[in-house]
Amino acid sequence: MKVLRKAFKQQLSDVVTEFVASAKADQAIVEADINGSLAHVEMLKKSGLVTPAQADNLKKGLTTLKERYEKGEFILESQYEDVHMNVESKLAELIGADAKLLHTARSRNDQVALDMRLFILDKTAEIEELIADLQTALIDTAEANIDVVMPGYTHLQRAQPLLFAHVMHSYVEMFGRDKSRFSDSTKRTGVSPLGAGALVGSGLPIMPEVTAAALELQNVFGNSVDAVSDRDFIAEFLFDASLTSVHLSQLAETLVIWCTKEFGFIQFPDDLTTTSSLMPQKKNPDPMELVRGKTGAIVGELVNVLITLKGLPVGYNRDLQETKPGAIRVADELSACLKVMTLAIKGMLVVGEKTHQAASDPELFATDLVEYLVVKGVAFRAAHDAVASVVQYARDNKNDLKSLPIADYKKHAPEFDESVYTVFNSINSANSKTSKGGTGSERVRAALRAARC
């Protein structure tokens, strides 16, 4: 290690240098680190800790480093341990002695805490936009198939007819909660820890509020010990990402089932499917399977951070370095999963003939038969028992509910009459559910309009 060894008689072992270095993971937070340093320099100038000329020199050098990073020309080196010392070392090569002023009134403890907050805020905004894109795709697909009826499922067994659009809207709601959680988390992430130093703050005339304002952060830390050790915001980001990933996995699993020949409800285009190296006829929904598969790793990073945090004594500990890589990986993986899912929703073809055929299974109307009797004055539980008896009778006689003679219906409830056969219409069944949040077409259309606003 080439830095911070003046108090030691030996150079750090090469093995240990590689072990403690975080340069590889830190490559993702270079921009955040430089932005934090630019704000820090502005604070140092206003505090009188550097001259205007020194501040200009520091900013010029930092801006050059940022431009090199954006061009892919600034790669962090393990010999400088982390992003902070890499930046400071390269800055010295660019501007000379003034680079030694950069770390005034600052520790890597509060610096890395700031870097990760800026990184998480940036990724949170990106993920919110990607979730919004997915919601729009779901709404578009729902409206394009507004009259498509299909079976609703409980326990993966056919339950009642509903509109395909109603199912799509259920995911719009689901991802809306995810987006809301990410948005709400910024109140707690948007806190500047810069000025906390290593642990106790600084005796120099610093102004943490200036740094926070320059970075457009909502608040400033209230306790220096907490400021350098707090990684709640990373855990919260990982929880929000994990739950979003779980929802993506649920959607992916549903689509994987729907595109099987056993269901045949949807078809994916060729540019969203792969084939087998052995079986040339295969058209596999690999992207959806990978969205589902990546959820385990994303949830695992949440568990990793929580377990890391649970055993730490008060104050900064190097264990906190291990909270960075997982958050960085998850941000990238979740963004990729959202992009792929949006493409899948936009590209899939809904096979209305198949869904309608499946939704016409006479047993799906059993609940409609119950409500038919309730409207005729039969108590719900009595109506439920009567229809259950009808269902069993039809099964025993190898018949279906739609073909069962009215005389057989009357054996179980005298309130049945010839009008019972009008119940067996999947579109009418779905549209009759006009209660709030139900699958009736007017309710669904209104919900989609509201969701688009």
Walkthrough of the structure:
The chain has 453 residues and is mainly alpha-helical. It folds into 3 domains: 14-104, Orthogonal Bundle (Fumarase C, Chain B, domain 1), CATH 1.10.275.10; 120-203 and 215-357, Fumarase/aspartase (Central domain) (Fumarase C, Chain A, domain 2); 361-423, Ribonucleotide Reductase Protein R1, domain 1, CATH 1.10.40.30. Helix content is 60%, strand content 5%. The chain is built from 18 helices and 6 strands. The chain has helices at 14-20, 23-26, 30-46, 52-70, 83-95, 108-144, 164-189, 208-214, 224-229, 232-258, 286-310, 323-347, 352-359, 366-375, 380-396, 406-412, 426-431, 441-452, and strands at residues 149-154, 157-163, 191-192, 219-220, 266-267, 349-350. The protein has a two-stranded antiparallel sheet. Strand 3 (191-192), helix 8 (208-214) and strand 4 form a beta-alpha-beta unit. Helix 6 (108-144) runs antiparallel to helix 7 and helix 6 (108-144) runs parallel beside helix 12.
Contiguous uncertain segments of 5+ residues:
none
State the end-to-end CA separation: 55 Å
Number of E-state strands: 6
* Overall radius of gyration: 30 Å
Report on the biggest sheet.
2 strands, antiparallel
What is the level 1 CATH name of the largest domain?
Mainly Alpha
In what order do the strands lie side by side in the largest sheet? 1-2
Helix segment tally:
18
Question: How many domains make up the coordinates?
Answer: 3
What would the average pLDDT be, to the nearest integer? 96
Shape: elongated
Structural category:
mainly alpha
The CATH superfamily of the largest domain appears as Fumarase/aspartase (Central domain)
